[in-house]
Amino acid sequence: MPLPVTALIPRLREICGDDGVITDPNRRRTYESDGITYHAGTPGVVVLPTSTEQVAAVVRLCSESGVPFVPRGAGTGLSAGALPHSQGVLIVTSRMRRILEIDIANERAVVQPGVANLEVTRAAAPHGYYYAPDPSSQQVCSVGGNIAENSGGAHCLKYGFTVNHVTGLEVVTPQGETVRLGGKSADAPGYDLLGAFVGSEGTLGIATEITVRLLRAPQKVRTLLAAFESMDAGGAAVSAIISAGVLPAAVEMMDALSIEAAEAAVACDYPPGAGAVLIVELDGPAADVDAQFDHATQLCRDAGAFEIRTAADADERARIWKGRKSAFAAVGRISPAYIVQDGVVPRTALPEVLRRIAELSAESGIRVANVFHAGDGNLHPLVLFDDSAPEASEKAAEVSGKILDLCIEHGGSITGEHGVGVDKACQMPEMFSPADLETMDLFRSAFDPGGIANPEKLLPTPRLCGERPGVRKDVHPLVAEGTAEQF
Amino acid sequence: MTQDETTTTPPAEALSAGGAVVREATPADAVGGRVPRYVARPPDTAAAAELLATAHRLGLATVMRGNGTASDWGAPPSRVDLVLETTALRSVEHAAGDLVVQVGAGTPLADLQTRLAAAGQRLTLDPLVAGGTVGGAVATGLSGPRRLLHGPLRDLIIGMTTVRADGVTASSGGRVVKNVAGYDLGKLHTGALGTLGLTTSVTFRLHPLPEALRIVSAEAPDAETAQRWTHAVLGSGAVPAAVELDSHQAGPLTLSVLLEGAEGGIGARAQAVAELMDGAAVAEGPPARWSTLPGNPDDTLLKISTPLGQVARAAHLVHEAARQQNTTAAVSGSAGAGVLFAALPTAAGAAAVDAVARGLRTALDGGVTVARTAPALADAELDRWGDVPGLELMRAVKQRFDPDRLLAPGRFAGGI
């Protein structure tokens, strides 16, 4: 039998100091959820370690006592991966936020897990370098959280995900051992545990020191916005660009409803009457970018774009991006409540899936705004509803679930970047066979034989999947207070 | 099959029950000098799964083989009863519009590239060993020059189907590039030398073939210069697809920078890079020995991973260490990614190889492994892996996936 979590408190105070342990119920409740507020629970106790040694000592204590622990970074996650355990220890990395090294000769940065994503780029920028993964919450989300979720971002079409940019980790395993996986060099000997750890959602341990690649900032960045009468026309432009062999840094699309919301919220001044807008960004060597930019512009025109704007400078680029970046929060202007979905379909299936989503919306009377990373088929439908209306949230949840079914039906994925967490654990069997899941569980148990690291996340369990999934009822708290954007 | 049947049915017959073509092995089938008893060639994943389940039941040690071009990688397995040939697992499902392909593990890599090229696409994997299969590439985890820009092989894999030691078929990942559902187990199998399971099919992300390419090459007089040039090229914003180093003997080092992209811009880019390296020449095709391993096929081969700032020095140190052991070395690899290979001639004995590897481990950060030995050294006393951080976790993973140690036992790090 595991010890009650309260029995650990004196030892936790010895390890993390009095100011590093939170037991007061009200203060504990501030950690009750991450970005998905409808999954909430008060943690048994919260610790705020400042060093790898403290994390290891806390985890070792948990391991010895059979008490579960849940790692948490900045709490911006969108799959309830950091949902606390009521009988567990919530290990928050917010006091581990030092950039340990910017090493330009080796093109690496070494950081603690609590460092905000954007701080890495800020520290590298004076040298002409940057850290490529750019999740929309990058001003506040932590690099440690990015490791857990294998975070992407608008530019991952060209630059890949977190896993493609991490070369080394110091990890505290669920048994409290501190292990180094990789370092500043590539291809560490042995199994690629580093690659498998990234995206493991806190179920294999806690990354306490992270080594990431720094990239040379591109010589040139060019951005265009193209307005189309319909989503089909916009989709055709995306297909034409990709099949012409152009690899943009980002290709983003919004439909009429999300444009309307963005207009209401931030007056983004997108071309009136657009049924779809497409944002295409190219970066790289100047000569290459210019050639490809002209090509992409022509392809948009050929696909029926009735207006094309190009950004002449960084300000104009920011203006083009403004509507897109504000879209999630902006739907709050046109709907009292909404669910943010995250699904992926093969790019060629986009037109068909968007039509089916429109049908679903028409049949159910539930409005769906489409904002998505068109280049890689990553949909973020926003399912709008009025939470004061009877059964509206249930209906919205149903539509949201059916959209995921559509993704799976078309050979896609239930999550492109938000992760599985608690939120989608029960949908995993729709994508994976029992043998697939059992094999994943074997892997998990190699790291965590005691089953104490972020339990009830990522893989379905009978207890978890007996419950009904909830819905999102309000704007992300960080967005509401203005510290984060979502897109 | 009941326990009784297991004990009475001859193994060859039991192994073929699922549809695999089974034959007695010959000395030509030896792996690391061990001649197996049987060679089995399953026609599809289902048959491969049944075959492995049977081998598991019979307690047969099994080694996977594609075209056999890398059978000498890793340590020789401590025992081999069955060689599982993947060459019938051939299939190519190309979703050109999605820049994705799903390939059977036995498909020759060259055949795949021919198919993809017809659609103006490629798998951006330069094979370092010619003639291999897709499964073999995954098992060795080898990545050639273009890994610099497009990532090593593991970054190109978006889904994988494998059969476990107990015959259970399991998939991870999927058929879309952007996907974070579940553990990415394909990473584990990449470079695992077949010790965690049989890879039967792999889904890759693809890239369009570039319009144009240029190679800018120059000879650096010494390691310091080569290092300075490498840093300048990587930091220039030229975005090279590859920066290769070739140092086939002590002394000057050749740096070759590959640029790919739009026809309109390639000339100016090449010129800009040429200005960073004294005496640089621009060519429209790769030089001789591009994307190959150094030395001869029977040489002992070290793999050296270092931080970028130590790459050229690493090449220099290899020559120094070889000279001290009264032997020679040839070094080449990706200066841009920090992964080199060093070939030591067949005549170099185990003590010399061990001394070179140990010396490099002491002098450099990163990893130095003896990836392949000359045939005469197959059973020599050698520290092939050096210190492997995380080895206990690796053992735990192996224990979960193959608790009876039936898959290429002993071939991997720490005797896994």
Description of the structure:
The complex is a heterodimer of chains A (487) and B (416). Chain A is of the alpha+beta class and 487 residues long. Chain A has 4 domains: 5-94, Uridine Diphospho-n-acetylenolpyruvylglucosamine Reductase, domain 2; 99-216, Uridine Diphospho-n-acetylenolpyruvylglucosamine Reductase, domain 3 (2-Layer Sandwich); 220-409, Vanillyl-alcohol Oxidase, Chain A, domain 3; 425-465, no CATH class. In chain A, 35% of the residues lie in helices and 19% in strands. Chain A has 17 helices and 19 strands. Chain A has helices at residues 9-16, 25-29, 52-65, 117-124, 143-149, 156-159, 193-197, 231-243, 256-266, 286-302, 314-334, 350-364, 392-409, 428-431, 434-447, 462-465, 477-480; strands at residues 21-22, 45-47, 69-72, 89-92, 99-103, 108-111, 129-130, 166-172, 178-182, 206-213, 215-216, 220-228, 250-255, 276-284, 307-310, 337-340, 343-344, 368-373, 378-385. In chain A, the strands form 4 sheets. In chain A, strands 12, 13, 14, 15, 16, 17, 18 and 19 form an 8-stranded antiparallel sheet that branches. In chain A, a hairpin with a 5-residue loop joins strand 8 (166-172) and strand 9 (178-182). In chain A, helix 1 packs antiparallel against helix 3, helix 8 runs antiparallel to helix 10 and helix 9 crosses helix 11. The longest helix of chain A has 21 residues, at 314-334. Residues 467-474 of chain A have low confidence and may be disordered. Chain B is an alpha+beta fold and 416 residues long. Chain B has 4 domains: 3-85, 2-Layer Sandwich (Uridine Diphospho-n-acetylenolpyruvylglucosamine Reductase, domain 2), CATH 3.30.43.10; 92-208, Uridine Diphospho-n-acetylenolpyruvylglucosamine Reductase, domain 3, CATH 3.30.465; 212-283, Alpha-Beta Plaits (2-Layer Sandwich); 300-377, Alpha-Beta Plaits, CATH 3.30.70. Chain B is 28% helix and 24% strand. Chain B contains 13 helices and 19 strands. Chain B has helices at 3-8, 11-16, 45-58, 109-117, 134-140, 147-150, 153-156, 186-189, 223-234, 263-274, 311-324, 350-363, 391-401, and strands spanning 21-24, 38-41, 62-65, 82-85, 92-95, 100-104, 121-122, 157-163, 169-173, 198-205, 207-208, 212-220, 242-247, 253-261, 281-283, 300-305, 330-334, 339-344, 367-372. In chain B, the strands form 4 sheets. An 8-stranded antiparallel sheet of chain B has the order 15-12-14-13-17-18-16-19. In chain B, a hairpin with a 5-residue loop joins strand 13 and strand 14. In chain B, helix 9 runs antiparallel to helix 11 and helix 11 (311-324) packs antiparallel against helix 12. In chain B, 60% of the residues are buried. At the A-B interface, strand 9, helix 7, helix 8, helix 10 and helix 15 of A face strand 9, strand 11, helix 10 and helix 13 of B. Chain A: This is Glycolate oxidase subunit GlcD. Chain A: Residues 38-217 form the FAD-binding PCMH-type domain. Chain A: Pfam families: FAD-oxidase_C (PF02913), FAD_binding_4 (PF01565). Chain A: Its cofactor is FAD. Chain A: GO terms for molecular function: FAD binding; oxidoreductase activity.
